[in-house]
Amino acid sequence: MSFNSLLQTFSTQFPYGDFQLMPDEIINNIVERENVPDEYGVYLIYGVKNNQKELIYIGKSGTLKQDGTFKEQKLRKRLTMKQNGIYRKEFFRKLMRENNYHSLYFKWFITYSSKMKELPAYVEATLLNEFFKENHKLPKLNKTF
């Protein structure tokens, strides 16, 4: 299955949403405005330049602990916390400026809730695996797998 086919399948299997972040916007405000759910799942970040989207990151919210409970960060909080030691409201601005991105495009999927029972780590790994099979590398902001 191709990466894009997998995303299409996930769009029918999981509740999802998307939004765009412009350079003059703050991620915290956009997450609030777009009603990103307070649920566990995965998210993809694309850099947008010249009307082309480049997948630059695949991430998850909701790390499962041994006792079957999750660490606290759900999608809404995870999208606004730190990356590389910098709060994402600054990290994303810097990322857009340094890479000449017109904007960042985000897509998220709820994979674990009272109705959905797929572990975010499993779904994230599946996406990373398909991306790797097609591109022979990880998205540029995913450091390891």
What are the main properties of this structure?
single chain, alpha+beta, 145 residues, two-stranded antiparallel ribbon, 4-stranded antiparallel sheet, 34% helix, globular, 5 helices
Q: How would you sum up this structure in a few lines?
A:
This protein has 145 residues and is an alpha+beta fold. It has 5 helices and 6 strands, in the order αβαββαββαβα.
Per DSSP, what share of the residues sits in E-state strands of 2 or more residues? 25-35%
The major β-sheet equals:
4 strands, antiparallel
State Rg: 15 Å
Secondary structure: helix percent: 25-40%
Count of the domains: 1
- SSE string, helices as H and strands as E: HEHEEHEEHEH
| Total number of helices | 5
What does this structure look like?
The protein has one domain (3-135). It is built from five helices and six strands; from the N terminus they run αβαββαββαβα. It has helices at 3-13, 27-33, 75-78, 88-99, 120-135, and strands at 16-21, 40-49, 52-61, 82-83, 86-87, 103-112. The strands form two sheets. A four-stranded antiparallel sheet has the order 1-6-2-3. It has a two-stranded antiparallel ribbon with strand order 4-5. A hairpin with a 2-residue loop joins strand 4 and strand 5 (86-87). The two termini are 20 Å apart.
Can you lay out the helices and strands and say which pair or pack?
Elements: H1 3-13, E1 16-21, H2 27-33, E2 40-49, E3 52-61, H3 75-78, E4 82-83, E5 86-87, H4 88-99, E6 103-112, H5 120-135
Antiparallel strand pairs: 1-6, 2-3, 2-6, 4-5
